[in-house]
Design goal:
The chain has about 525 residues and is of the alpha/beta class. It is built from twelve helices and 27 strands. It is globular and about 80 Å long. The two termini are about 50 Å apart.
């Protein structure tokens, strides 16, 4: 980014302070001409007497002006005016512009500049409106300070000259990464459209697996991960740690349901070394053994890059196993018997897995591909990892139905997490859950926790529908099967979810992305 500062003195009593910033931008024409793109634009900022904020966008290759918006007075809303130019005044790069062009008409300018790029392209054929343009964003402030600038195809540009949805340390904040796959996906998650019939975000839990009457790809296999792309760009998987501190992709601690392991059902993954696991083969849902093997976290990151997926990580920290109210295994991790010491061991385990995930992702230049689901406050994370590192990833605070301090938890993340937050997982089971009841907070009434999250942050709430995996019901991390009591847990009921106020903008982590894609389509069909 370039900065130019100029002091201009007019007469003897008035001085105007001018600053010019030039910011490189990459813009995807495919995104700009997508059917749902919004071309609303404008500037927010403070303008003193005689000042202005002038924003220009110039095509780097030809030097042609593509956009200009000027704000001559302070505004807390996006505002500003354009200027009419004749085609001849803009130079040879504007050959396909209309004879007279308004500088706010970015769409018309982009179409024209793409035709000009065709003229300059030696290799043919040239696919129109599909390339990436390298642009220069010029922000001039004269006796003024810009707060934000709304830029179609990018979003909101902040006063630092980056994407305001993301922390300045994050990959997606850099406008040169605007057209990258990960920026597009994370931006979509961070910008819910409450006016749509349905604007759900679907994350495939452990990939797309278990179809063909259970003979389909095993969960968390490379095949299941590849198939995710058929329904969504977002994968959600569980990460565990081994005895020798390696990371494995697995939902269960017990290995018998998921693999061809032939030892004891009480041989848990976290008490085994990676060398004992790497040759195990994954089972399909019908329990037949496949050729696929357990993945390491490094394998998973490679698959994200290869298949262009992003990942929300559900860390399965080490905990105690309790059955019928009694601890039967790993009891030094049981708060009921070992109090605060056990709580610390559980938290330390979670944090260790998070730190190792970050370390591996960094080693593969892929930190931008991951986000963490997190049951801890951001201030707790800072005791284990630096803010500089944490600000390079995204987080989804998780609020379980039994959490009594859920509002304080959300407020803490609002205060300390800021733009590091991707969304909030506002889990619930029935309409009787406290999080789905109306409440007052600081003199304002909210319909439920989902409404509170959206109202306070502009971000999405979310949930885990937890549909039954088959006739045996659902399974926990100890590989125990359960049939849910549907009077106490309504998750899996699609119509219940869609009827929850602010539910239509949720992030849904689901084992059935195929079904939720159909629900999304159904709620977006116009009714005459």
């Amino acid at each position: 980014m370039k900065y130019y500062v100029l002091i201009i003195c007019l007469f003897s009593s008035v001085s105007l302070y001018a600053k010019l910033r030039e910011i490189p931008v990459k813009l995807s024409l495919a995104t700009m001409f997508a059917p749902d793109i919004s071309y609303t634009t404008g500037i927010k900022g403070n303008v003193n007497a005689g000042g202005k904020i002038d924003v220009k966008i110039v095509d780097k290759q030809t030097g042609t002006l593509l956009f200009q918006c000027t704000l001559n007075q302070s505004s807390s809303e996006f505002a500003g005016s354009g200027q009419t130019y004749s085609k001849e005044s803009l130079g040879s790069g504007a050959i396909y512009y209309p004879d007279f062009w308004n500088s706010l008409d970015l769409k018309k300018a982009l179409f024209a500049i793409d035709r000009k790029h065709y003229d300059l392209q030696a290799m043919k054929p040239y696919k129109f409106l599909s390339s990436e343009l390298e642009l220069i964003l010029k922000i001039e402030e004269v006796n003024a300070q810009m707060d934000e600038f709304k830029f179609p195809g990018v979003g909101i540009v902040d006063q630092f000259g980056g994407n305001s949805l993301f922390h300045p340390n994050h990959f997606c904040h850099d406008l040169m990464n605007t057209s990258s796959f990960v920026t597009k996906v994370w931006t979509k998650i961070k910008t819910p459209d409450i006016n749509k019939g349905s604007d759900l975000i679907i994350a495939a839990h452990r990939g797309v697996w278990g179809d063909k009457l259970g003979a389909g790809a095993p969960e968390n296999s490379i095949a299941a991960i590849k198939r995710t792309k058929d329904f969504t760009d977002i994968l959600e998987s569980d990460i565990m740690i081994t005895k020798d501190k390696q990371l494995i992709v697995s939902h269960d601690y017990c290995l018998m349901r998921l693999t061809d392991y032939s030892g004891s059902p009480r041989d848990y993954l976290f008490n085994m070394n990676q060398s004992q696991l790497v040759d195990l083969h994954l089972r399909r849902r019908n329990m037949s053994v496949s050729d696929f093997k357990l993945l390491t976290f490094g394998d998973l990151v490679d698959a994200l890059i290869e298949n262009q997926l992003v990942l929300t990580i559900d860390i399965k920290e080490i905990i105690a196993r309790r059955k019928n109210g009694v601890c039967i295994d790993n009891c030094d991790y049981d708060p009921a018997t070992h109090g605060e010491e056990a709580k610390k061991k559980v938290k330390d385990s979670w944090m260790e897995i998070m730190k190792k995930c970050i370390e591996i992702a960094v080693s593969k230049n892929a930190l931008q591909y991951i986000a963490f689901k997190v049951p801890h406050e951001y201030t707790e994370l800072l005791k284990y990892e630096s803010d500089d590192t944490l600000s390079k990833v995204l987080f989804m605070p998780v609020i379980q139905p039994q959490r009594k301090d859920f509002l304080n938890f959300v407020d803490s993340w609002i205060a300390h997490g800021g733009t590091r937050v991707l969304a909030y997982e506002t889990n619930f089971r029935t309409t009787k859950d406290k999080s789905l009841s109306p409440f007052m907070r600081q003199g304002v009434e909210y319909k439920n926790l989902l409404h509170y999250v959206y109202s306070k942050t502009g971000l999405r709430p979310g949930s885990y529908p937890e549909e039954p995996m088959g006739p045996k019901g659902i399974v926990n991390r100890w590989a125990d099967w359960m049939i849910k009591d549907l009077t106490k847990d309504w998750r899996g009921d699609y119509y219940f979810f869609m009827g929850v106020p602010y539910g239509k903008i949720m992030v849904l982590t689901t084992d059935r992305p195929d079904m939720w894609s159909k629900i999304q389509l159904m709620y977006n069909i116009p009714i005459n």
